[in-house]
Amino acid sequence: MASDETVIVIVEDDPNISDLVELYLRREGFRPYQAENGERALEVIRQRKPSLVLLDVGLPGDLDGLDVCRRIRSDSQVPIIFMTARDDEIDRVLGLELGADDYVTKPFSPRELVARVKAILRRVEAPRQTSPVVELSDNIVLDSARREVTVAGEPVALATREFDLLKFLADNSGLALTRRQLLDGVWGDDWIGDDRTVDVHVRQLRKKLGEELRLATVWGVGYRLD
Ligand code: CA
């Protein structure tokens, strides 16, 4: 999925972090560019037209990460992942509804960050690629145009969020998604504080769709639809 065309801008003033993240992104075939402060970030983003921006919250100079996000959002919907250092930064990121797509807390694993990057890019690119009808197994068919799931031709009654969760998992199939990514992708702004909501809905999906649904629990991460 990553190609030479997939440009990612890393906005981070700590070169140890940006170099490490750049290394991991490069290894996955992305084309990363670095910016060490807010002003430079806006410049690089204008020049390179990235597919995604990794944005440190605490930046030196006149513009911090939140300012940069606001400026980006004034004319672009490019996905943004915040890199936050402290709890109060997370609160600000979440509280200001700046339109960030995800965030990671330092210190983070570069591997996990790359997984988040891929998940978001897949989500963004998904609508162009997926047909409205997806076969989840020999017998389970999801029709997003009709918002209907059938098992061996028989429609199954799913709650709205159950359908949305299944659709989101299907759009990201093969990818282990954290509960938070699922909450973020399916519940959006309503999710805060209730992590087990996902587990409850997964249980319902398994019950209603049966053994054939290849919905795996990934220990320590979340869920993956195969
Ligand atoms: Ca910083």
Enumerate how many helices there are, as a single number: 8
Unreliable runs = none
Identify the strand order in the major beta sheet.
2-1-3-4-5
Distance between the termini: 17 Å
Q: Could you name the CATH topology of the largest domain?
A: Rossmann fold
SSE topology string: EHEHEHEHEHEEEEHEHHEE
What class would the helix/strand composition place it in? Answer: alpha/beta
CATH homologous superfamily heading of the largest domain:
Response regulator
CATH class of the largest domain: Alpha Beta
CA radius of gyration is 19 Å
Q: What is the helix fraction of residues, given as a range?
A: 40-55%
Q: What is the CATH architecture assignment of the largest domain?
A: 3-Layer(aba) Sandwich
Mean pLDDT: 87
Distinct ligands, ions and cofactors found in the model = calcium ion
Main β-sheet, in a few words?
Answer: 5 strands, parallel
* Shape type: elongated
Q: Supply the number of structural domains.
A: 2
Strand percentage: 15-25%
The count of β-strands is 12
Keywords:
about 230 residues; alpha/beta; Rossmann fold; five-stranded parallel beta sheet; four-stranded antiparallel beta sheet; about 45% helix; binds calcium ion
Short description:
With 226 residues, this protein is of the alpha/beta class.
Annotate the secondary structure layout:
Blueprint: E1 7-11, H1 15-27, E2 31-35, H2 38-48, E3 52-56, H3 65-73, E4 80-84, H4 87-95, E5 102-105, H5 110-129, E6 133-135, E7 140-143, E8 148-151, E9 154-156, H6 160-171, E10 177-178, H7 179-187, H8 196-209, E11 215-218, E12 222-225
Parallel strand pairs: 1-2, 1-3, 3-4, 4-5
Antiparallel strand pairs: 6-7, 7-8, 8-9, 10-12, 11-12
Helix pairs in contact: 1-5, 2-3, 6-7, 6-8
The chain binds calcium ion.
